[in-house]
From TrEMBL:
<keyword id="KW-0472">Membrane</keyword>
<keyword id="KW-0812">Transmembrane</keyword>
<comment type="similarity">
    <text>Belongs to the drug/metabolite transporter (DMT) superfamily. Small multidrug resistance (SMR) (TC 2.A.7.1) family.</text>
</comment>
<feature type="transmembrane region" description="Helical">
    <location>
        <begin position="64"/>
        <end position="83"/>
    </location>
</feature>
<dbReference type="Pfam" id="PF00893">
    <property type="entry name" value="Multi_Drug_Res"/>
</dbReference>
<dbReference type="InterPro" id="IPR037185">
    <property type="entry name" value="EmrE-like"/>
</dbReference>
<dbReference type="InterPro" id="IPR000390">
    <property type="entry name" value="Small_drug/metabolite_transptr"/>
</dbReference>
<feature type="transmembrane region" description="Helical">
    <location>
        <begin position="89"/>
        <end position="108"/>
    </location>
</feature>
<keyword id="KW-1133">Transmembrane helix</keyword>
<protein>
    <submittedName>
        <fullName>DMT family transporter</fullName>
    </submittedName>
</protein>
<dbReference type="InterPro" id="IPR045324">
    <property type="entry name" value="Small_multidrug_res"/>
</dbReference>
<keyword id="KW-0813">Transport</keyword>
<keyword id="KW-1003">Cell membrane</keyword>
<feature type="transmembrane region" description="Helical">
    <location>
        <begin position="33"/>
        <end position="52"/>
    </location>
</feature>
Length: 111
């Protein structure tokens, strides 16, 4: 398998681990519940490890930008879908700006 493709798959898996960890953090009730707290810690550790492994083949700047923005957008959407959080026009535009910023970073990387 192409090392860059594998690295991007690691980034995607890292984002999933981060989002799962954040959902577990919500359920941890301020780290007062053992299972969700342990799940959050394990998922965050896995997310960081996977991202570090992906950086063996990818540039740090774009990797972190994709990871952070994807995690932010996915977490916001999970909040809307699972926890009934509001998605107003300002929040939606903010998510568009986050994704647009990463696209611009990636395009700037091609110069």
């Amino acid at each position: 398998m192409n090392p860059n493709l594998l690295a991007w798959l690691l980034v995607a898996t890292s984002v999933i681990a981060e989002v799962v960890g954040t959902v577990a953090l919500k359920y941890s009730d301020g780290f007062s519940k053992l299972f969700p707290s342990a799940t959050a810690a394990a998922c965050y550790a896995l997310a960081i490890w996977l991202m570090a492994a992906s950086m063996r083949h990818l540039d740090m700047g774009i990797t972190y930008a994709v990871w952070a923005s994807s995690g932010t957008a996915a977490t916001a959407l999970v909040g809307v879908a699972v926890f009934g959080e509001q998605l107003g026009i300002v929040k939606a535009l903010g998510l568009v700006c986050v994704v647009g910023g990463v696209v611009m970073l990636n395009l700037g990387n091609q110069q």
